[in-house]
Amino acid sequence: MAIVKPFRGWRPPQEIAKDLSCLPYDVMNSQEAAEMAEGKPCSLLRVTRSEIELPPDIDVHSKEVYDKAVENFNMFKEKGWLVQDEEAQFYIYAQSMRGRRQFGIVGCAACSDYEDGIIKKHELTRPDKEEDRMIHIRVNNANIEPVFFSYRAVPEIDQIVSNITRNQMPEYGFVADDGFGHHFWGVYGEESNRLLEELFATKVPYTYVADGHHRTAAAARIGLERKQANPNHTGNEEYNFFMAVHFPDNQLTIIDYNRVVKDLNGLSDEEFIDKLDSVFEIEELETKICQTDEIQEFHVNYDIIKGMDISCQSASSMQPLSEQKDETINPTVLHEFSMYLSGKWYKLTAREGTYDDSDPIGVLDVTILSNHVLDKILGISDLRTSKRIDFVGGIRGLGELQRRVDSGEMKVAFALYPVSMKQLIDIADTGNIMPPKTTWFEPKLRSGLVIHGLE
Hints:
Layout: E1 4-5, E2 10-11, H1 17-20, H2 30-37, H3 45-48, H4 63-78, E3 83-84, E4 91-97, E5 100-110, H5 111-116, E6 119-120, H6 127-140, E7 142-143, E8 147-151, H7 155-167, E9 172-175, E10 181-186, H8 190-203, E11 207-211, H9 213-229, E12 241-248, E13 254-255, E14 257-261, H10 269-276, E15 280-284, E16 336-341, E17 344-350, H11 365-375, E18 389-393, H12 398-406, E19 412-416, H13 421-429, E20 440-441, E21 452-453
Parallel strand pairs: 6-11, 8-12
Antiparallel strand pairs: 1-5, 2-3, 4-5, 4-10, 5-12, 7-21, 8-11, 9-10, 13-20, 14-18, 14-19, 15-17, 16-17, 16-19
Helix pairs in contact: 4-6, 6-9
């Protein structure tokens, strides 16, 4: 059963929570981080992407960058931009996106659960990225950013969350620049915190890494490192735990994670389509997405029932107006793909024999595409290292795929039907690993609403 425990979080005062919070370190480059932090001296990007305060040509993995992160983290605490709670507690974090809401429990997961397979993963990690996050945790002596976990929904946990969010006003509540809503509550009272801890320990056999495999692995390795260095280790030390937001599986939706490829491996368009015919039924579509630089306005509507029931409806999430037309091109069922090549969209339907619906990996559309197209036709066998392929989160819309092909940067694009939470859990439960870049979760967790110190 899962160990999930309350902790004494470091949190910002309410009036700066929006400016201090930021997107995760790994969804942006240094230039984008600098632009996001501009005019916000308290932005946590000055800790998670501290290179933005150093010369632009600096190595982001240099000692100077890590030292600057520590300097800024300590400065945030000295200035009162981060203040530690008096008592250990759980927190509730709600995210709102286009009328859909998800409520997560923020608590500390156990490093031992990761080692023992109680925390299940579905992706492989890269040693260099693990090492980077290990150093960041080690020098700051804290989990600065949370990881994104899921678990099979438990009605009793849902009820506690509902009671708190309906009967307390959130301590933080704001709409970020991308149009997504974020709300945050502390769980107060010994009884509520004890009950939540007991429910995880008795009702939740496993938790699942949804997003943040490298941060999870790094945190677990730091816990083991501290354990081995402490001759008086008891297992109760704070370094044995790391911060995660735990969402019930029935509230989460995975969106598509698409592919763009630079060339056709020496094939002409006609030769390529001819080879695809053995894998797919191919239908040319009449529709083409109109490109526009306009950004649709978004509207946020809060309905407060008894001061607590929050709904946030974002019409656009800052996406182009053209995304309204994607429905005619988007894959609508499993084993259906959309392809953009030389100014035309095509619907591809996988032929029988190209997939295995009884196999948790063989049923995936990313497996069909990887095995039968990227590898056998285009000669891309290692998605992790190939420079000929790139990956585009579905939040950017199919217009982004079309734009990158029309610009000449890429030759062909593939849009995939998204993986389901059931598929993710089935894969993790069977000990399988998904192909790279298979799942995309949105909204991303905001870093900085709470931080977990290792002492």
